Amino acid sequence: MLASVAPRYMIVRQAFRRTEMTATAKLLKVGEAAERLSLGKSKVWELVARGELASVKIDGARRISERAVDEFIADLEAKASA
């Protein structure tokens, strides 16, 4: 009986960990920011290169803050309503 419970426990535990990590993430990978913006990664890299989307570099890793994504969206909405 214990063997049949263990796989279910592991699935729930893994799902919880994934949810917990995403809920607390403040810095996003380029791919994660692309998903939130419904854009491709290459478009996000282009926005970063042009300075339209703020990012930070930690050693060799480029990260985009949730706040930068929110500000980018707010800027787009402001331009659209102007």
Q: What features would you describe in this structure?
A:
The protein has one domain (2-81): Multidrug-efflux Transporter Regulator, Chain: A, Domain 2 (Orthogonal Bundle). The protein has helices at 2-24, 30-37, 41-50, 66-81, and strands at 27-28, 56-58, 61-65. The protein is of the alpha+beta class. It has a three-stranded antiparallel β-sheet with strand order 1-3-2.
Give a brief rundown of this model.
By secondary structure, the protein is of the alpha+beta class.
DSSP strand tally: 3
For the biggest sheet, the summary is: 3 strands, antiparallel
Separation of the first and last Cα atoms: 64 Å
The fraction of residues assigned to DSSP E strands is: 5-15%
CATH architecture: Orthogonal Bundle
Share in helix: 55-70%
Characteristic key phrases:
three-stranded antiparallel β-sheet; globular; 82 residues; single chain; Multidrug-efflux Transporter Regulator, Chain: A, Domain 2
Q: How are the elements arranged and paired?
A:
Layout: H1 2-24, E1 27-28, H2 30-37, H3 41-50, E2 56-58, E3 61-65, H4 66-81
Helix pairs in contact: 2-3
